[in-house]
Amino acid sequence: MLINKELHKKTIELFNTKNEALKSIAQQIRAKTISNNVYLRAIIEISNICEKDCLYCGIRSSNKRKKHYFLNSDDILGLTKSAYDLGYRSIVIQSGEQTSNHFIEFIDKIIRKIKENFDIKIVLSCGEQQQQVYKQWKKSGADRYLLRIETSCPELYKKIHPNNSKHSFKSRIKCLMDLKKLNYQTGTGIMIGLPGQTLTDLAKDVEFFLNMDIDMLGMGPYIPNPQTPLYKDADINLEENYHNTLKMISICRILMPDINIASTTALEAIHSYGRIEGILYGANVLMPNITPEKFVQDYSLYENKPKSMGLQKTYLNELGKALKKLSYSLILKDPGAPLHYINKHTP
Ligand code: SAH
Ligand code: SF4
């Protein structure tokens, strides 16, 4: 499919650069283009009910061991208020994929209520939906959408999903195209270290991000979950997945200087300082979890998920201090729109 030979060579070359050198190039480019600011998004995992059955994910529909939950609108508004009061100006509503009218209308209502009450950007991460639904949610006030392609390699995509129309690579691409057409600030991403994933696949992922002209990127290490079918294929080296994710963050910062890149929770599931390291390698967004603690373990996509700390003032203070020591500034009261999107839309 893809292959821009020059870009491919460059990506592989960067990948083979020693971590310290790579990190330093990414840091220089970042400081010059988007500065050392770090922006926050509070993430609320509103429901673990999912109609899909991705072979790697702990909340897949066939996993009967989890207890279902669905936060109500008062809970979500209460969490949004607490986040707003702490200085968050961007909130992520994430959920297992649901396509019922009830779900669509519920999200619609929540978007309207949040927008009526708070000056805050709404990021949705609610999976694949009809174009009409994305349109309705946008009209109601949603600003951004995150939909990871997971891997841009169709063969690998097939291997990590059930072979049916609900898990189609083509549909996922169409969704991303729809989101862009509707002018969402559009984010995608991948898991790194999937069984059978090669360096060539990762280089193609980078090319995919560039061709899709995305605004935001969230990449995380693949973490095998024993409650999923893909676990049995697990000849996985978590340390390697961790380091390759850091490398990919730097490579993407170098090749796409003005996009927003998140330092993801999954990095922290491997090392407690993981999210800070992500920032050092070029990420400029942190997404603290604000889901009520009693539900966090029911939303276990993978093992060893960190606690929900995003509403603890001390946590944010510590984060700010740790970043400051490293010459980064944690920015409150600012939604931190991707410069890439702003540039695209400024005549
Ligand atoms: N249902 C929505 C959003 C929730 S899943 C969607 O699929 O888009 C959010 C992300 O969790 C997925 O995109 C996937 O990349 C990640 N994820 C799921 N299982 C994982 C695992 N075992 N290791 C690492 N990341 C995982
Ligand atoms: Fe559902 Fe998303 Fe998990 Fe797939 S990755 S099973 S769509 S929650």
What does this structure look like?
This protein is an alpha/beta fold and about 350 residues long. The chain has one domain (about 5-340): Aldolase class I (TIM Barrel). The chain contains 14 helices and eleven strands. The chain has helices at about 5-15, 20-35, 75-85, 100-115, 130-140, 155-160, 170-180, 200-210, 240-255, 265-270, 275-280, 295, 315-325, 340-345; strands at about 35-40, 40-45, 90-95, 120-125, 145, 185-190, 190, 215-220, 260-265, 285, 330. Strands 1, 2, 3, 4, 5, 6, 7, 8, 9, 10 and 11 form an eleven-stranded parallel beta sheet that branches. Helix 4 links the parallel strand 3 (about 90-95) and strand 4. Helix 1 (about 5-15) packs across helix 8. The longest helix is centred in the last third of the chain and has 18 residues, at about 240-255. The radius of gyration is 19 Å and the shape is globular. The protein starts with a helix and ends with a helix. The model has no long low-confidence stretch (mean pLDDT about 95). The structure holds S-adenosyl-L-homocysteine (SAH) and iron/sulfur cluster. S-adenosyl-L-homocysteine binds near residues 127 and 148.
Tell how many strands the DSSP assignment holds: 11
Number of helices: 14
Report the β-strand fraction as a percent range: 5-15%
* Biggest pleated-sheet summary: 11 strands, parallel
Structural class: alpha/beta
Per CATH, which architecture?
Alpha-Beta Barrel
In angstroms, what separates the terminal alpha carbons?
Answer: 33 Å
CATH homologous superfamily title: Aldolase class I
Shape: globular
Task: Give the low-confidence spans.
Answer: none
User: What is CATH's topology name?
Assistant: TIM Barrel
Look at the structure and give the CATH class: Alpha Beta
Radius of gyration: 19 Å
Helix-strand pattern: HHEEHEHEHEHHEEHEHEHHEHHEH
The chain-level mean pLDDT equals 96
